[in-house]
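call fold(seq) -> tokens
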Amino acid sequence: MNTNIEKNSLSSIKQVTKANLKTQYLISKNIPLLWIVAINDIETRNFIIKWLSDIWIWAIVVWTDEDFSLENIASTPKLNSNVIAWFDFFIYDNEHESVDVVKFMSVGVVPIMPENNTFSWILKAFNPMKFEWNWFFYKKESPYCVFEKVISYCENIKFPEDKRVLLKNVTNTF
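ret:
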């Protein structure tokens, strides 16, 4: 994303897809963040979506076997590639088949993933003190470790410069 035209195109795409998603899933206009949860482990997934619901963050869960009765949580068997641009970040466990990490990151969707993953050679934990790197990773396969990174992400994007640098780093990764 080196030119103003590309940045404006990404911004326009995010605005259009944001409006479409909010209409499709009946999301309030006041909801600031929308997350994708693509985790195969049932215990971890249920823990994460319960906490996301409790702190009033909207999540779309990519899963086919369950119907969630939590507020501000929706599910879908597969994400339409035309709508991923508006999501703010995704939680991924290296096992879910319907997540294209490269595509998600190329449109500015920030990853929260395990430390050991296919992209470890190019992804590094975001360091807000140095404005470096491009993702949030968790070291242990524990729901608490995953949720810790969700909170880290929420804290970091409160600062406009941190958010700007993180999104720039994410979109320039691949």
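Residues 4-171 form a domain with the Rossmann fold fold (CATH 3.40.50.2000).
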